[in-house]
Amino acid sequence: QIVVLLNEAIARSEVTPLDTAYTADAILAAMSPALLQYQRGECGYSVERIIAGMQRLFVECIRKT
Length: 65
Hints:
- The chain is mainly alpha-helical.
- Helix content is 68%, strand content 0%.
- Helix 1 packs across helix 2.
- The longest helix is centred in the C-terminal third of the chain and has 14 residues.
- The mean pLDDT is 94.
């Protein structure tokens, strides 16, 4: 589903062309329960910080300007 959405965004020129399969894998990896547990428990990151970081990486960085 993520690949489909990324391809649609590229087709509408909303996103810079990219490797959609790799990007989808990276998004899913960033949302893994083990990583989120580590970020919250060991690193002490707030939910807001995690969301903001993911938004910067996976929305703002690929959005066409």
